[in-house]
Every structure is written in structure tokens, then in C-alpha cells.
Amino acid sequence: MVAVMVTLSQWGSTWCQRWPPGTKVGDAVPPLCRPQDALQVTGTFKQCKTQLVQEGFDPGAIGDRLFVRDAARRSYVPLSRAAFRDIQQGRLPL
User: Fold this and answer.
1) Which contacts of 42-51 are long-range, i.e. CB under 8 A and separated by 24 or more positions?
2) DSSP single-letter state for residue 84
């Protein structure tokens, strides 16, 4: 997952909403995207990733919006609880 610092009002015009032309599935396109207004950093400006890892990507457990890569649409779509269940059960591959 990638956590990007962007407001939700900016989301539609960012690189993460639509894939660049010529991008193929399997290229370095993150399977999950979690836009945030601000990233937590340490005193030496390193990202605090431990909490993100602990929270995972369960849409019912975290407050941020999550988006999952949709290869058919070549864009990111909101991650629903049903899609999260499908990922957990192996019916929806990342």
C-alpha cells in the first residue's frame, strides 16, 4: 500500500486516481492507496509507518478512505467491505 499526502478534494487530479498511459498491470502500480491530509513523521522527518502497518487495510477498522487498484478500469476505486472480504478470501487478487 502507498500512503499519499493529498486532500480528498485534490484526489481526482492526482497521479493515484488514474494510471499513466502505457501502464500495464504488474508495473509498479500500488495495489492499494490511502490518501491522507498529512503523514506522521519523526523528529528527523522519517515516515512513521508502524501504525499504518498495524492498521492494515480493513475499511471497517480505519478512518481514512482506501482505494484499490481496478485493472479493468485502469484506475483506483473505493475499497468496500465486500471487496475487502473478497481479498481476504482470495477471490479478488491484489
Assistant:
1) 47/3
2) H
